[in-house]
Amino acid sequence: MAFQMHPANDTIAGLIVVCNNKTKDECFKKMVFGFNPREFPSGTAIVESVKKGAKLFLFQHEFKTLEGIYEATSDGYVDRRAFRGKYTVQIPFRFDKAYNIPLQESEFENAGISWPNYNFMSQRVVDHALSAAQVHRLSEVLRNKYNRQRQLPPPPPRI
């Protein structure tokens, strides 16, 4: 099941934000996901449809991993001065449930989430709006993986 973009007038239950290591570090310093409207033309309407409390997930395209769960701390908005005018479409966020174990591609595909194309250098595949059902499935897969990892026995002591 591929991601479906929601019309701009719909409230979005969640959003997958695509980043790389460099942009991830900057986002976490400022606690805001920023988008360049020139690279993501439909992003302004989509981000402005994100309301406070929406769940956010981060896809690192270099590793093809998905992490989360983050939560929008306010509605998405446009700030023309942000990031020196480059990433003006923004969603401030906080850590909701920081399952610090990212999902590999096969794991989030098992949740019914798949990508139609892997051409991240093109402008076509960037960020994806999620339905409430997709947010629930991704959250459940992340939570289950985290809980399984916590139940593993500790490694034997080194001698």
TrEMBL record:
This is DCD domain-containing protein. Transmembrane segments: none annotated. It comes from the Eukaryota. Residues 10-144 form the DCD domain.
